[in-house]
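Usage

Read records sequentially. Each one opens with the input sequence:
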Amino acid sequence: MRIISKPIDLSVAEDLIISTAPLSDFLFLDIETTGLSADHNAVYLIGCVYHEPDGWNMIQWMDTTGNEEKEVLSSFLLFASRYPILVHYNGDRFDLPFLRRRLEIHTLSHSIDAMKSLDLYKVITPFRRLLGLSDYKQQTMEALLGSGRVESESGGDLVRVYRKYIVDSDPELLARLLAHNEADVLGLLSLLPLLIYRDLENASFHVRRAQANYYNDYDGARKEELFLFFRLPRALPAPVYASADHCYVKIEGDEGILKIPLYTEVMKYFYANYKDYYFLPEEDMAVHKYLASYVEKNHRVQAKPETCYTRKAGSFLPQWDLYRTPFFKRAYADKELFFEFSDDCKKDRSFLSDYASYVFAHIKDSK
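and closes with the structure output:
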C-alpha cells in the first residue's frame, strides 16, 4: 500500500460550509474501484481532502499490488474517524454503500454510518428541472460552475489502467490514476457553490416591482402578462431558466423575473350545493332558491353542477390548488383554476411576494 499526502493550494468557497460546522469537521471523499459490484470488485484508491490550520491538504491510499484492499480500508478508517461529516458527489448511492460492503467482507468494524453525509448530488437534485442539463454527472456540474476541468478518461478506462499498473508498476500509469482521483476530490470543493441553490428550496421572494405587459400572440390575439421582479439574498452560481404552464422564470445572479399570464375576461364561480339553486338561462347565472322564488317558473330551471355559477368580469391569475379563494373557472369540467387579481392585490407587496414564491415552487416541482 502506498499513502500520498500533500498540501493543496486552492481557492474554496469556505463560507458556504462553515455556516453549519467548522472546516475541520469536513472530509471530502472519492473512491476508485475495479468495477460496480461491491460483492465482486474492490476499492483500489481512496482520496480525501481535509482542512487544517495551515490550509487544505490531500491524502490518498493506493493499493499498489491488487491485494492490499484491507490495508487501504483500515488506514482510511483510522484517518477518517476524527471527521464527523463526509462530503461527496452521489456517494450515498455508490461510494458509501460500496465501502460498507467491502468493510463487511473484510470484517472491519467502522463508524461510517455515524458520520453525517453531505451528498452534493442530492443538494442539486431538487433543482434539476431549473437547470435543464443533459445529465448531472460530477464533471457536468463542474463545467456548469466553470471549474475548467477537462478530462478524457472515464472510471472504466482507469480500471484497465490500474490492471496494467499492478502488472508492470509503471510510474506513469500510477500518476494517471492518482491524478484522476485527485481531480475528482478537488472537484468536490469546486462544487460547493451548489449549496447556494438551497436558497431556492423554500424560497421566500421579495418582489421589488410588478409590471403588466401586453403583446400579440402568434395568431395576432392580444394577450396580457404579469412580470414580477425579485432579488435573492445571494447570487446563484449559474443562471436558471425554466417554465411550466405558461409561467416562466429567469434568475441570473441575484436578480430574478417571473412572467405569469394574466387573463382579463369573464370567469365563473361555481356553487357547491347546486340542488339549492335555480339556473336563469336568460341571465346566464344561478340564484339561490330563496331568491328564485321571485322569478317566474318559466324563466328558471333546476341548476346542475355545470350551470350552478355566477359570472365575474375582471383580471385573473392562475393557481394550481386552492392557493386563494374564491377560485374561478372557465367551465365546470376545466382543470385550470384562477383567482381574481383585484386592485387590492396589485397594491399589496406582501401578496405579490408570496405569489411569486408560489409560482416559482410550481415551476420547480412540475413534472
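Summary fields computed downstream for this record:
- The chain has two domains: 2-200, 206-271+308-365.
- The chain is about 25% helix and 30% strand.
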